[in-house]
Amino acid sequence: MDTSEDPLLPQAHGPIPKDRFHMVYFIFYLLGLGSLIPWNFFITASEYFKFKFRNTTLPDDEYLDPEHETDLQAMFESYLTLASTAPNLLFNLITTLLISRIGLKVRMSTALFLITSMFVLTASLVKMNTDSWQDSFFWITMITAVFINIGSSILGASLFGVASLFPSHYMQATMSGQAMGGIFAAVANLVTLALGSDVVDSGLGFFLFATFMSICTLIGYASLYCINYSRYHILEIGNTLIVPVQVGEDTVETRPTRSNGSGNTKLIIKRIWKEGLSVCLIFLVTVSCFPAVASSVVSVNNTDWTEKYFSGLVCFLLFNAGDWAGRSVAGTFKRPGIGKSNLLLVLSVMRVVFIPLIMFCNAQPRHDPVIFNSDAFPVIFIMLLGLTNGYLGTLAMMYGPSMVMAEHAEMTGAIMATCLTSGLVSGSLMAILLMKSL
Description:
Blueprint: H1 23-44, H2 46-52, H3 71-97, H4 104-124, H5 134-163, H6 168-195, H7 199-223, H8 228-237, E1 240-246, E2 252-258, H9 265-289, H10 292-295, H11 304-329, H12 341-350, H13 354-359, H14 376-402, H15 409-437
Antiparallel strand pairs: 1-2
C-alpha cells in the first residue's frame, strides 16, 4: 500500500511546504483574535448586566446610581472574577496533563462548541424580561461564565500548544490576535457610548458578535488541515512520526504513529522555568493594575467629556493599543534575545513599579493623597503597561517552545499557557487587595 498519495498523511521526506501568501500566519492571527474576543465582549457588556440586576422599583435610567446599587450589582464583578479565574486555571492544568491523551481536534472543536453554545444561550436571554427572576438569572449568568471559561481555557492551552509546532512568529501572530480582541472590545464600548445606544441592544450586539467570532475561529482552525504548510507541521512535527511497518515477507509500508508528546514534563519545566516564571510575573503585574485599578483613575479635569470617555479611552483603548503594538513589534525586534533568560526575568520583575505608579494617579475613591495629579501621567503609565506586557509577554511565549525539541513543543506551549493563566489568577487576587488599599 502506497501512502505517498494519501492527502491526509504528512510526507516523511521531501521539501517542507511553504506558507503561501502567509495564509497560515493570518489564520493564527484570527485564532488568537477569536480565542479572547468572546470573553472581552462578555465583560464589556458589564452595563447590560448591571441593568439586568437593577432595582426594578426605580426608573430604568437610574440603574447606575451608586446610592441605589443592589446586592446583585455589587456582587456581580467579584463573582464574575471567581467564575472566570478558578475554572480557567483548573482546566488549563487539566489540558496540559492530558494533552498527549486527547487529540488536538477533539480539544479545539469541543472548546469552540462549548463557547459558542454558551454565547447563544446568553444572547437568547437578552430580550427576555428577567426582572421577576433576577436571582435565577444571576446564577445562570455565573454558570454560563464558568462554562465559557472552561472552553476558553481548553482553547487557549491547545492553541498555544499547536502554535508551538510552528516557527516562533506564529506564536507572535497568536498573541497579537489576542491583543486585537481587546482593541475591538474597547472600540465597541466607545462607539456604544458615543451613539448612546440602548443598553439591552448593545448587550445583544456584543453577544451576537462573540458568537460570530467563535464560529469564525472554528472555521479558521479547520482550514489549517486544508493547507499543506500547516498540515505538515500539525501532522508530522506535531508528535507524528512516519515509521516503517512490516506487513508481509516483502512488503513494507509507512504508517503514522503517535510519539510521546508529553516527554519528561519535569525536564521541560527545568529547561523553560525562567520563561514560564517571566510570563507569569508579567501578567500578574498587568492584571494587578488593569482593569480594576486603571479603570478607577479619573480625569483631574472634571468635564462631561472626560466623565463619559476618559476611562474607556485612556484605560481600555490605550492599554489594548499598547499591548497590541508590543506584541506586534516582538515578531521582528527580539531584545533580549533567545537564551537571555536571566535578563528577561529581571525585566519582568522590574514591571512591578507600575503598581505604585498607577495607584498614585487620580484613582478614586481613595484615602491616600494623589501624587501624579495630571492626566498625562495615567496616559503614559497605562500605555507603557500595555506596551511592556505585550512585548515581554510575547517574547517569553515565543522563547519557551524554542528551547525544547520539536516533539515536546506542543506540551511546552501548553505549560507556558498555564504559567500565563497562573499570572492572570494571581493578578486578579492582587487587584482585589490593591483596590481595598486605595
